[in-house]
Amino acid sequence: MNVALDSLVRLRKADIKPAARVLTESFQQYPLLVQKYPDESQRNKAAYYFFLVIVGYGVRWGEVYASSPRMEGIAVWYRSEYFPMRFRKILRSVPFSALLCFPWSGVGRLQKAADFVEARHQLTAPSEHWFLDSVGVLPQYQGKGYGGKLIRAMLVRTDMERLPVYLDTMDETDVRRYEHFGFRIIDKSAVPKTTLTNWSMLREPGNQ
Ligand SMILES: CC(C)(COP(=O)(O)OP(=O)(O)OC[C@H]1O[C@@H](n2cnc3c(N)ncnc32)[C@H](O)[C@@H]1OP(=O)(O)O)[C@@H](O)C(=O)NCCC(=O)NCCS
């Protein structure tokens, strides 16, 4: 039993849309989204559908947690056997109503960067690991411990399973933050057709 995870709320199918809204708002200033969608309303729309896929996929094939029933923050995790996301599996995890109005061409702007990041992940991560796909806390709750609570609870579990954890980020502030949780940089590369850098990070089990 993992007491730390018991302090979080594991999300189900009915939570996919509210959780995607929380991640959309949390990632409003994420460098890749800002660069690809300078217009804020376009950015929010694309990010919402992007996170619908991520949360839906996580609920179906991995584990998605909220910091509390109020959903101050959300973390999406899955194991390496479910990476990379397969279209067939996405179709089985995202609400049908969302697929019907999915803005394929709008979200397509993120595709090249997403493909690049996926390739770095495949190349640099060990074969068996947990993937922290996304973690976000609503702006008004950031810096108050919710992100730490979401991340640490799962690290107790990954330590118990003796598995490493992989994540990537294009925000240098996150790199320092994740180092604080025991992650180390395993790859740093320029993201094609952007001015951004992608950091791949790995945390070996038990590393503080
Ligand atoms: C990243 C994010 C999830 C962190 O959540 P948060 O609730 O703001 O974080 P917390 O207040 O729990 O702080 C987490 C820890 O990081 C530490 N930290 C914060 N900034 C740091 C920095 N620059 N260097 C080192 N440590 C740092 C804090 O001290 C805290 O450590 P502690 O728990 O030991 O006290 C949140 O800021 C967010 O949603 N950002 C926007 C979305 C995003 O970029 N997500 C990550 C990309 S995958």
Describe the protein's architecture and organization.
- It is a single chain.
- By secondary structure, the protein is an alpha+beta fold.
- It has helices at 3-6, 16-26, 31-36, 40-61, 87-91, 96-100, 104-107, 111-124, 146-160, 172-180; strands at residues 9-10, 63-66, 73-79, 130-137, 165-169, 184-190, 197-203.
- The chain has one domain (3-203): 3-Layer(aba) Sandwich (Aminopeptidase).
- The chain has 10 helices and 7 strands.
- Strands 1-2-3-4-5-7-6 form a 7-stranded mixed β-sheet, sandwiched between helices.
- Helix 2 (16-26) packs across helix 4 (40-61).
- The longest helix has 22 residues, at 40-61.
- The chain is globular and about 40 Å long.
- It starts with a helix and ends in a 5-residue tail after the last strand.
- The model has no long low-confidence stretch (mean pLDDT 92).
- Coenzyme A is lined by residues 26-27, 30, 73, 134-137, 142-148, 169, 171, 173-174, 176-177, 180.
Please tag this protein with its features.
208 residues; alpha+beta; Aminopeptidase; 7-stranded mixed sheet; 7 strands; 19% strand; binds coenzyme A
